[in-house]
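Weekly structure sync - notes
Attendees: PM, LS, DV (DV joined late)
Agenda: review two folding runs queued last week.

Item 1: First target. Sequence and structure tokens pasted below for the record.
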Amino acid sequence: MSDVAVDPQRSALDVESAYLSLVEAVCQSVDVPVAVKLSPYFSSFAHFATQVVGAGADGLVLFNRFYQPELDVEALEVVPHIVLSTPDESRVPIRWAAILYGRIKASMAITSGIHAPENVLQAIMAGADVTNVCSLLLKSSIAKIDWLLKSVTWWMEEHEYESIEQMKGSLSQKAVADPMAFERANYMKTLLTPESTITL
């Protein structure tokens, strides 16, 4: 679902209610499982995700990736601009999958920033059932799918995992030693945490 709410008179409740009505209408009209692709830009995402599932969704896809327009200062125009994802973008959906795992009765898919076997493993361990791959294939080739599958299989064998189900959710918020790590939002506190890593 993607709708840029630009009307100042339209409240967050109005926007969410419209989405939920749409989900409910679709789910009541079809006989197949419905997965809803969401945006992370909700003020209380966990609550809204729960409502989407309550409206009938069987799965959540995290997250819809908005393509931001660019301003052409020479032509004085607003032009479309597509930037392919990077591995760092997987952190937001993986974080939310880890938070939601065990709290909602729906499957979850990660669809942003999956570029390497490690990203796939992180997503599954967070609690996702599946990962979607696009930018990696556009940047290289369809052969990368075979590379991802073989690499994940090798890693699982090396670490004695017998199935995806055994691995799923093992690094979710409910499973890790420090559940609050998923909720830290203070930049300075994060920098001062001994186990933090910094990418330069």
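Item 2: Second target, run right after the first with the same settings.
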Amino acid sequence: MNRSFPNVPAVLAALTVGLVLFAAKATSGASSQLSEAVAAPVVDAIVTSPAEDTAVFAGGCFWGDEAVFEHVKGVKSAVSGYAGGKTDNPSYEQVSSGDTGHAESVQVIYDPSQVSYGKLLQVFFSVAHDPTQLNRQGPDRGTQYRSAIFYNTPEQQRVAESYIKQLTAAKTFSRPIVTQVAKLQAFFPAEAYHQDYLVNHPNQPYIVINDQPKVAALKKQFADIYRN
């Protein structure tokens, strides 16, 4: 889906916002409607190195996911990019075609002594996206918008799979969780104009409708780890 909004007359712009808002409401999922965070993982990663670790998540448009994790205490950086596919150094246009196998993803580099891998997963399932939407997220459609956790280590795999089983057993969501858990083969940073997109375009209609509410939900549901 083309998420950009060119310069158009004010009336047409207003109509565009209205149509996007309608689509977002019509396709919003369970996660966006949760009034509180899902339960924390019973099984979490064991901290072996206090320096830093890396996690990679895919949950629809990477603009919103990146913005959410950038507001989490203990996160050193969040980078929008592509993972899970077969094409090296893909372009946004290639990934958007759905032919590369890549998903829009975010690489999170964090300090495990400040925020655990399990806590990042809790944020991912609570406010970053809706894990019950198959090959889509909100108004965006295609495998490039699938829900996925790309693990770096067997420990991350163990925690991710255990957490999905936990949330499923608790019937946290009204529909089945469709999140893919797969080994990370490679992560390719997206083009520069995608980085910090919410920060640089806070009033862009897509951002206002689909991504600003995620950051607001993080602040409300995870006040103890939220940072401005």
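Discussion on item 2: The chain has one domain: 10-221.
Action: LS to circulate a short write-up before next sync.
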